[in-house]
Amino acid sequence: MPSKDVVAMHPLDPLSVSEIPFVADLLRQHTPLDLCFNTITLHEPAKTELLAYFESTGPKPDRKALVIALEKGTPQVHEAIVNITTSTVEKFAYRPGMCPTISLEDLEMVESIVRSDPGVIEQCKILGVEDMSKVYCDAWTIGFDKRWGAKRRMQQALMYYRESPMDNQYAHPLDFCPIVDTDAQKVIEIDIRSVNGERTPIPNKQYNYLPEFVAETYRPDLKPINITQPEGVSFQMNGNEVEWTGFKFHIGFNAREGIVLSNIRYADPQEGGKDRSMFYRLSIAEMVVPYGEPSAPHHRKHAFDVGEYGMGAMTNSLKLGCDCKGSIHYLDGVYSNRRGEAVVIPQAICIHEEDAGILFKHTDFRDGKCVVARNRKLVVSQVFTAANYEYCIYWNFFLDGTIQVELKLTGMLNTYCLHPTEEAAPWGTEVGERITAHNHQHIFCLRIDPQVDGVNNSVMQSDAMPSPHPAGSEENPYGNAFFCQKTVLKTTAEAACDYNHETSRTWDIVNPSKMHPTAKKPVAYKIVSRESPRLLAQPGSLVWNRAGFARHTFWVTPYKDDQLYPAGRYVPQTSGLEDDLEGNFNIITWTKEAANIENTDVVCWLNFGLTHFPRAEDFPVMPTEPVSILLRPTNFFKQNPALDIRPLQAQGESQYAFENGKENGNGEVTEAMKKCCV
Amino acid sequence: MPSKDVVAMHPLDPLSVSEIPFVADLLRQHTPLDLCFNTITLHEPAKTELLAYFESTGPKPDRKALVIALEKGTPQVHEAIVNITTSTVEKFAYRPGMCPTISLEDLEMVESIVRSDPGVIEQCKILGVEDMSKVYCDAWTIGFDKRWGAKRRMQQALMYYRESPMDNQYAHPLDFCPIVDTDAQKVIEIDIRSVNGERTPIPNKQYNYLPEFVAETYRPDLKPINITQPEGVSFQMNGNEVEWTGFKFHIGFNAREGIVLSNIRYADPQEGGKDRSMFYRLSIAEMVVPYGEPSAPHHRKHAFDVGEYGMGAMTNSLKLGCDCKGSIHYLDGVYSNRRGEAVVIPQAICIHEEDAGILFKHTDFRDGKCVVARNRKLVVSQVFTAANYEYCIYWNFFLDGTIQVELKLTGMLNTYCLHPTEEAAPWGTEVGERITAHNHQHIFCLRIDPQVDGVNNSVMQSDAMPSPHPAGSEENPYGNAFFCQKTVLKTTAEAACDYNHETSRTWDIVNPSKMHPTAKKPVAYKIVSRESPRLLAQPGSLVWNRAGFARHTFWVTPYKDDQLYPAGRYVPQTSGLEDDLEGNFNIITWTKEAANIENTDVVCWLNFGLTHFPRAEDFPVMPTEPVSILLRPTNFFKQNPALDIRPLQAQGESQYAFENGKENGNGEVTEAMKKCCV
Prior knowledge:
Domain Copper amine oxidase N3-terminal (chains A, B): 100-195
Number of strands of chain A: 32
Strand content of chain A: 35-45%
Helix content of chain A: 10-25%
CATH class of the largest domain in chain A: Mainly Beta
Largest sheet of chain A: 20 strands, antiparallel
CATH superfamily of the largest domain in chain A: Copper amine oxidase, catalytic domain
Protein name (chains A, B): Amine oxidase
Domain Copper amine oxidase N2-terminal (chains A, B): 10-91
Shape of chain A: globular
EC number (chains A, B): 1.4.3.-
CATH topology of the largest domain in chain A: Beta-galactosidase, Chain A, domain 5
Oligomer: homodimer
Mean pLDDT of chain A: 93
CATH architecture of the largest domain in chain A: Distorted Sandwich
Low-confidence stretches of chain A: 656-678
Distance between the termini of chain A: 53 Å
Subunit structure (chains A, B): Homodimer.
């Protein structure tokens, strides 16, 4: 490994195109096994070690890689830690019974397998299809099927037909589902649906969205909107580190979580310009998309797009003016393929600024004295494709210190065919003739590793409560009293809780050792989510078992270096039952003992998302549907942290003072004052 | 009245600068009373009459004005309907016991009254202030004070001190509150707060936000973002009517509601380009801001900024590049002053387009075949100043047929002084030294007068429900079943309901006579609000009585021409008690009898907003806090209505087809196809 690279890199930088094959080679030299690589990714330094380095009290941590590999042609999984700095394999262990993520290569392989499988060919013939080049499938992990459990790695092939190579396959779903052994590379079963003893004809009407089919209907009337930054952008990049008007953080990327933001600080002029830490690490650590149609094989449709496939590996290469508009800085994404080679996704991460409307405004109604400043956001974004769906992820930083995590859902509905005797209701919507799109939920688990002015934080649940005293009582004579009830969550058991709309519930991550000088409350960042639907699957259901993290809106755990993924490190083909865990711990097991989470290093897990009852308007391609959460400074800054943003307008006496060079409150006219009215 | 004007005007156009004095003159000729005008505004035509005109089955309705006037120097209210077309006074009636909105002139007058009142001067002396030019007040309507009821019109003067004319008064609140008779123009009482027998010293630390004070701290680092439309905008204005890529509507404006959008239609290419109606009229019909500090005089702080002051009259004149960015079309706002003259607010309404991110995207993971189209919104906006607060209101129309109502709250916190022995908690936050900002809520009542493909609509409550059958049962073998439970709201009593987060509750406004051809559900627009906090004041409290509309999230009423304002037409100094109504009916009385609301002309009332526990960051000027609701087409369009938006990118085979002039599905290459990749 070229030592120069290692020296220059930030400890959280993703593995580079040279590091990935270097790691693969080291491991090949280490073991005689014929390995097929599943994951070669940065093994992030231990937190204590990395913080010591950040605070210049410890050395730069060694670069290390986590490797997950399979013995070729088998489901036997091995896990390694490779030290790149020292060129040594530190750990190499067999992980029996574990199924790692399904790779894009695994998915792509399934389509060719089913096309040439005699059983599948026979089923297609029954449905009237002879030309197998018109048969397509979206491979999904099997989820969990008790017929096989986790003994072999399997995928289910959701089958479709295309009239032409450009035709929309989601308009032509087929009624059977082959099961493929990923390692043996063959169809091992075909689940065939029968409705009253009959097969379901393929929906044959075309519903297309590609320009080939719809270009003639295009509206002529939209005039271009140009967004430019002639003087350049306001952020600076140093490798993967960003600085933007006070904010500083590191942008990581890995095959599983996609974008990871770390070491988020703010150079606070109200505290002498010193860096104040807010978050150690933010990522979308898991997600689940359970479908609500009760009959087989749809019960297996509940994709964990992080833990089963990887949001990073499925990331799109972005295009200027299409995915993002304005002055863009891009970062590539890098991950490994099965041969241990680096795969580069050019322009995987988009970094840009956007105008964000009014930041603050006030007019004195007496004299029209007025200031208006404009807000803007720094956006760090990616888009990934999970078979039919597209997820656009935006990490938005605002001038007032707010951080927003916004997801926009688009792409294609997962569809299924309706038998002529069937209705779509109540489990779906008939979005095209005899095409049903099933009810489903999207639940995203945001992992928030806070560092609010330091590592030791507590979490307070905030509930808006009316006074307990009735109107007319001495304590509440007019009946208008209400307050914010703050409850310190003391243990992991107490912290497993749900959003409560009745009390507009939020959660404050506080530093109990640092009080706000004026507000006399501990400095805090508040988690605001109004879009946290409950998991609608029943307790004891397959998805309830497997997606344990989704049983509550919110969790808090004591920080542990190896607790990154709330559904477990190995998600595919888990049953979710505890006796099936075999060391693959998840948030249910982590929180089993009521561990202390007060004034210590904690991690918060917030579930948010939406319940989607498909509409005709979502077909054949869905308009984006947004969902978002906020992290808001709450008595974190001494006062409005955006007060030092130059306003674009100052009217009335204020305007007059500028234009005429009049004195300010201290009898001075400064250059800044003269320039502040644009 | 110049008949030419009347002929050219749209029946919903606001009264013009020539119509307002014309109406005032007609009324002065009609009555010997010495009138002081409170309101001269468009009296909108009856709905049946206007619809007949729109549908060319009836004549153009006469232009009429509603006039509210006071006998000068008294609280005696008279109400008139003046027909401008025929130059006649159609109605002139005395309205005993009613208090009309407080005008800006009323508010401004109070400050000069209190400054010269001997009692106020004495109180200021006690607090150490000799120079009365440094004493300011925000006049508020008194709300309701049982000492006087509604027999005279009164305002409460929230008192402040300023060290210099530019100083922020909200940093120096005084501890007493004069009560002013609006018509007699004198102080009639001074409510003085005592804390353990002591007065509260004026907080004397300065917290400023105007450039004079903070310019020297401005950050130098933000580079300009330029937004231009070199080919012009994509919307057309015809007077107050807008057309934008399918959407058509009329923009009205009045002193009370500000922007009113009417006759909202969409020229639907999926139905042969014909105009399909969606909404007859949309406006923010009322709002209330109850404060939660239980002691007097704060119980009187619950401003109804629509019904007590008027969002239109308080509207800001907007500036390009400051309030709005890009290519802007402005409309002026016009209302009347007390002399019956027209007051013009230049550039009161901003109309512009904004890029709105990805509209839809899908990539075929096999071959990278991809389309991305960009969304944009048409924004119709206003900003109004309600003493300390600023409300920015955005009516956003999106290419996918979604209409969003977004409010951004900014401006100044209402503040009060703390006695040295007092703490701000639990009723407020100490945002500056000895300055408390009290807990409060902002509840906005959106009046939705739907016309979903016709006048006769029904409303269905939609609740996401798990299957009632347990996991393992025959009906729900895997436990994953869930569905959307639709409940038709049949009467006003059933329709008075609350948001339910447990079921992600939404409401569908449907046309039961028009089924979606594919989805086989009635065409609908869905109301989505996740931000509808409950009213925290107790039942029986003053604000609960007065803001009856806020007792539930949602209401539906049968349409009546005169039911525009859910807290009543005359809001100031109402007790909210029924025996006090005297013909001033509100939503509580309208919904008393369980009237039919099924398949008829209905109006929906949606409350949304937020509960605000002030933060230090909200001082001295608040960063905008957004809150919004959506109206989404739901099986209204045949399919995605934005499918005819030209994508900005088409990759893979699709790209290849364009670049090489290959055939489309029908063997043709069209010009549109060639142009679709930018």
